[in-house]
Amino acid sequence: MSKAKPIDILIASLEQIEPLDQQDRDLLAGLDLRFRRFSANNEIVRSRTSPGESCFIVAGFAARAQYLADGGRQLDQIHVIGDFVDLHSLHLRQMDHSVIAIGPCDVAFIRHDELVSTMAHSPRLTWLLWQLTVLDGAVARTWMTCLGRRRAEAALAHLICELLTRLRRLGAAPSNRFHIPATQTDLADMLGVSTVHVNRSLAELRARRLLTWSRHEVHVLDFERLALIADFDNSYLEPGNPMPKYFQQFVTS
């Protein structure tokens, strides 16, 4: 498990959007968290279930998964440390997809009734949690474009650019290096291609001296050129608008 306190990880994630005051921090610190470690490919959240809690990542990576009748699967939207993976389950009768661990993954669960109570006491936290679901939507739309319109090499480059951008903001990619325990099968299921295409795409990016990828260790050597190949624009990862005045009046009243 990460050395940082789990609630501090969540606070750091929220404060990428807007700073919290002490009251908000105290509300979050008072949450009753349940922890669990998942092995690679284990389901953190299962499709067609109705969870009574939501969870965020304390360490590791996770991805959304949908399964096909022939046994195939599509993975999308890799989640990193601090991400809520199923905040939207608050509003769903049942999950329409699963969330699986990409390598070992530590997760903290919060009961829905506690989340609702916390939001009732803090419009600011309500606004920030809403912003997280907006970010989820932006990432999902971008992944859809990658799957539908980008070649395998460009889609892989885009995936790496997205991960590096997000992890750098968390201080988790020193010198443009990061660890991700994704297998080539995982990558193929993320990109919607065969493992042969993944191998070829990785080989091409290596040959251009854009990155190294060995034993799950990624080192991006030339981010600008990699982003050019990917047609990567990080604006979809930028924080949304600050809390508007009509929310602020509830906070200060």
From TrEMBL:
Keywords: DNA-binding, Transcription, Transcription regulation. PROSITE patterns: HTH_CRP_2. One of its GO terms (biological process) is regulation of DNA-templated transcription. This is Crp/Fnr family transcriptional regulator. Gene3D superfamilies: Jelly Rolls, Winged helix-like DNA-binding domain superfamily/Winged helix DNA-binding domain. Residues 150-224 form the HTH crp-type domain. Pfam families: HTH_Crp_2. It comes from Georhizobium profundi. GO terms for molecular function: DNA binding.
